[in-house]
TrEMBL record:
It comes from the Bacteria. This is Holin. Residues 70-99 are annotated as: Disordered. It holds the Pfam family Phage_r1t_holin. Residues 70-80 have a biased composition (Low complexity). InterPro entries: Holin_r1t. It comes from Micromonospora rosaria.
Amino acid sequence: MKTYLATRQFWAGAVERAGRAATWTFVAALGVPGVGDAIGVDVRPLGWRDALTVAAGVALTSVAASVVAGKASGPSGSPSLVNDRPAEQTTPAPVTPLR
């Protein structure tokens, strides 16, 4: 019996989630030019090295969360706490036209 940590499906999902989280964090840490001025808040962006450091920390945290989610209550083989798999499709009953 394979453990969920030994499946390709689990790691593909975990890496995808970690990559998205790191990307969002990196972009946010760099700051978007003009956003602070537009909303009237003094936003000081990080340098790219600091932004990478923060993004790497978020990616590691995401992988750790996936490991915990897979063990805790997520669907079998998934790094998610919720059932993110689509439900099986059922064929609807035929519609009878009104006359």
